[in-house]
Automatic annotation (TrEMBL):
<keyword id="KW-0752">Steroid biosynthesis</keyword>
<protein>
    <recommendedName>
        <fullName>Methyltransferase</fullName>
        <ecNumber>2.1.1.-</ecNumber>
    </recommendedName>
</protein>
<dbReference type="Pfam" id="PF08241">
    <property type="entry name" value="Methyltransf_11"/>
</dbReference>
<dbReference type="InterPro" id="IPR013705">
    <property type="entry name" value="Sterol_MeTrfase_C"/>
</dbReference>
<dbReference type="GO" id="GO:0032259">
    <property type="term" value="P:methylation"/>
</dbReference>
<keyword id="KW-0443">Lipid metabolism</keyword>
<dbReference type="GO" id="GO:0016126">
    <property type="term" value="P:sterol biosynthetic process"/>
</dbReference>
<comment type="function">
    <text>Catalyzes the methyl transfer from S-adenosyl-methionine to the methylene group of 24-methylene lophenol to form 24-ethylidene lophenol.</text>
</comment>
<dbReference type="InterPro" id="IPR013216">
    <property type="entry name" value="Methyltransf_11"/>
</dbReference>
<keyword id="KW-0753">Steroid metabolism</keyword>
<keyword id="KW-0489">Methyltransferase</keyword>
<keyword id="KW-1207">Sterol metabolism</keyword>
<feature type="transmembrane region" description="Helical">
    <location>
        <begin position="6"/>
        <end position="24"/>
    </location>
</feature>
<dbReference type="InterPro" id="IPR030384">
    <property type="entry name" value="MeTrfase_SMT"/>
</dbReference>
<keyword id="KW-0444">Lipid biosynthesis</keyword>
<keyword id="KW-0472">Membrane</keyword>
<dbReference type="Pfam" id="PF08498">
    <property type="entry name" value="Sterol_MT_C"/>
</dbReference>
Length: 358
């Protein structure tokens, strides 16, 4: 081979590898590249074991129902998925209705800003984000409202990611992040002017445990809004396809058991809240929230090849391939949940802590 052909071939091969790993790997502006995929706080050699351990929870459903085990199980899940979520979805770990003519990024922001508009807080207020992930919603909400936001997550790795993103976005003056359990919050009572949770309280084995903690830390008169994952009125436990879809969603999303939409306001009232409004934000005229998930299928195939190559080369921990495969299947269950209308990730409830509550 003459030197020119050799040089061109080598340039093509290296250029191709660079394009595959770096350019394709980062897809949109997400804050994570494929070559940096990790198992969160889990050391790389233990990722595969931890994935098996996560899966074994579902073989012993009684254990998932035991409240004390759930935060640990959820923490393991977020160690495993946080990097893949950030890489393939972005810094906001939730869905939002599609908006014709708007990007996913804009539709996500609009859905987040609606939450803080509903609880009517502004500059100088201190508000709680219960289950904050890596803080995508927190930053959008702080920037939009001027309020001080305190995020709470069970996962230490997410705390570090969120703090780093807050600093990079120059919002660390308004946003703080704390590692802790929303079933036993590390906050004083009546210390917040408002609170919200976006697709997070579905991880609580008993919703009353997290709602009563939120009630405790809110000042009288303060408001709380939550976007809940629930089964809708179309779900039937007699229908085996419905049951299969819901089980698929629970297993792929670390859920101790999805609740029915009917339970939400009943539980809010039981812990002392006044229910101001309740609405499934996925209902028409809203456009399908699952479109983004469904449209991404080709990208997920590409991602799967990429993750497998990286694991083969020893760049990504081996278990990342299993985790990615699990998410791949979960995307399908979620899409089917949306298309059949038996599941919604955005059953919104707006509550107020009564002024006379002591
Ligand atoms: C609220 C929760 C998480 C909701 C969503 C943010 C995530 C649910 C399913 C996730 C994904 C599925 C498929 C992945 C794909 C195979 C991969 O290549 C890139 C990332 C995915 C798109 C990933 C992204 C996040 C989700 C959409 C739960 C946990 C309560
Ligand atoms: C799907 S993510 C949503 C994150 C964020 N609300 C967003 O929309 O980007 C769910 C979040 O709830 C948190 N979470 C789940 N169970 C928790 C618990 N018991 N205590 C605190 N946080 C918890 C997880 O750590 C994760 O950050």
């Amino acid at each position: 081979m003459d030197p020119l052909t050799l040089f061109s071939t080598a340039a093509l091969i290296f250029g191709g590898i660079y394009w595959f790993l770096f350019l394709l790997g980062s897809a949109e502006q997400k804050g994570k590249r494929a070559v940096y995929l990790s198992g969160g706080s889990i050391s790389r050699e233990k990722v595969q074991d931890k994935y098996r351990q996560y899966w074994s929870f579902f073989k012993k459903p009684k254990e998932i129902e035991t409240t004390e085990n759930v935060p640990h199980f959820v923490d393991t899940f977020y160690n495993l998925v946080t990097d893949i979520y950030e890489w393939g979805w972005g810094q906001s770990f939730h869905f939002s209705p599609s908006i014709p003519g708007k990007s996913h990024r804009d539709a996500t922001r609009i859905h987040e800003q609606m939450a803080v508009d509903l609880i009517k807080v502004g500059p100088g207020s201190r508000i709680l984000d219960a289950g904050c992930g890596v803080g995508g919603p927190m930053r959008a909400i702080a920037a939009h409202s001027g309020a001080n936001v305190v995020g709470l997550t069970i996962n230490e790795y997410q705390v570090n990611r969120a703090k780093m993103h807050n600093k990079n976005a120059k919002l660390d003056n308004l946003c703080d992040v704390v590692c802790g359990d929303f079933l036993k919050m590390p906050f004083d009572e009546e210390s917040f002017d408002g609170a919200y949770s976006i697709e997070a309280t579905c991880h609580a084995p008993k919703l009353e445990d997290v709602y009563s903690e939120i009630f405790r830390v809110l000042k009288p008169g303060a408001m709380y809004v939550s976007y809940e994952w629930v089964t809708t009125e179309l779900y039937s436990s007699e229908n085996s396809e419905h049951v299969d879809i819901i089980h698929g969603i629970e297993r792929g999303d670390a859920l101790p058991g999805l609740r029915s939409f009917k339970d939400i306001s009943e539980i809010a009232r039981k812990v002392g809240f006044e229910v101001v409004m309740e609405k499934d934000l996925a209902k028409p005229p809203a456009k399908p929230w699952w479109l983004r998930l469904k449209m991404g299928r080709i990208a997920y195939w590409r991602n799967h090849i990429l993750v497998s190559v990286l694991a083969f080369l020893g760049i990504a921990p081996k278990g990342v391939v299993d985790v990615h495969e699990m998410l791949f299947k979960t995307a399908d269950y979620l899409t089917r949940g949306g298309e059949t209308g038996i599941f919604t990730p955005m059953h919104m409830i707006l509550c107020r802590k009564p002024l006379n509550s002591s």
